[in-house]
Amino acid sequence: MTYQTITYEVADRVAVITFDRPENLNAINVRMMAELAEAYASAERDDDVWTIVVTGAGTAFCTGADVTEIPEDGGNLAQSPYLSTYDQWEAPQEATPPFRTMTKPILTAVNGICCGAGLDLVTTSDIVIASDRAEFFDPHVSIGVVSGREMVRLARVLPRSVVLRMALTGRFERMGVQRAYELGLVTEVVEHDHLMDRALEVAGLVNKNAPLAVRGTRLAIHKSMGVPLHEGELLAEGFRERVKRTEDALEGPRAFREKRPPVWRAR
């Protein structure tokens, strides 16, 4: 696919996906949805990619769906006939990576305004860092729309009262990045001009580890979050058992004994 609304670059085992509609504050239109879906799929199936970084161009990270393209009847942006595909029966994903079915870790670097569907990246990514210029809000009720999955996801991350305040004040109140850090919405605040350098540095730290062990750990955490603790422990052990049968699981202890850096092969 030739990308028009995003950029996609791979280097040093890191795929960088950049929302690239700065003149529209990286609002998501139909083409962007399709391009993001293809980019996420490309990164997932590429053996040369171990970690994915998502960020935005310009002053905004992502401001959600492009309201100029929302149909007058309030329907979603899909071009297929209504309810003709499984995805239309699911919660809309828009810019969200298919985090439930992906194995590779996703790092989101929030470079500026983050609202609406942009919040989905913050709540579904594995690591989130932010520019000191970032700010967060949810404008749905301000344009007459129920704030749905975005706030439901956010309520799994932030205290209920904080989420309700954001949801009900709409576009008229914004959460600053320092407050977001204090609440655990982001893990690190970075000087704006150094955001991508730091994002790539953190991605590099992840990539120093055994990639299959990283993926298994990520899956163990994600898949166990909605089940009771004991069942979650057993589920996580299943991922550990799978990875124990790989070449990398032998290489790690061997490299430790030989006092050398491990050579990971992702198999």
Overall description:
There is one protein chain. The protein is of the alpha/beta class. It has 2 domains: 6-207, 2-enoyl-CoA Hydratase, Chain A, domain 1 (Alpha-Beta Complex), CATH 3.90.226; 211-257, Orthogonal Bundle (Lyase 2-enoyl-coa Hydratase, Chain  A, domain 2). The protein contains 9 helices and 10 strands. A 6-stranded mixed beta sheet has the order 1-2-3-5-7-10, with helices on both faces. It starts with 5 loop residues before the first strand and ends in a 10-residue tail after the last helix. The mean pLDDT is 94.
Short structural description:
The chain is an alpha/beta fold.
Helix and strand arrangement:
Elements lengths: L5 E6 L2 E6 L10 H16 L5 E6 L3 E3 L43 E5 L2 E3 L2 H7 L2 E5 L3 E3 L11 H6 L5 H10 L5 E2 H7 L4 E3 L4 H13 L3 H14 L4 H16 L2 H11 L10
Parallel strand pairs: 2-3, 3-5, 4-6, 5-7, 6-8, 7-10
Antiparallel strand pairs: 1-2, 8-9
Determine Rg (CA atoms, Å): 19 Å
The helix/strand series, from N terminus to C terminus, equals EEHEEEEHEEHHEHEHHHH
What general outline do the C-alpha atoms trace?
A: globular
Largest beta-sheet details = 6 strands, mixed
Tell me the β content. 15-25%
Descriptive keywords:
267 residues, alpha/beta, 2-enoyl-CoA Hydratase, Chain A, domain 1, Lyase 2-enoyl-coa Hydratase, Chain  A, domain 2, 9 helices, 37% helix
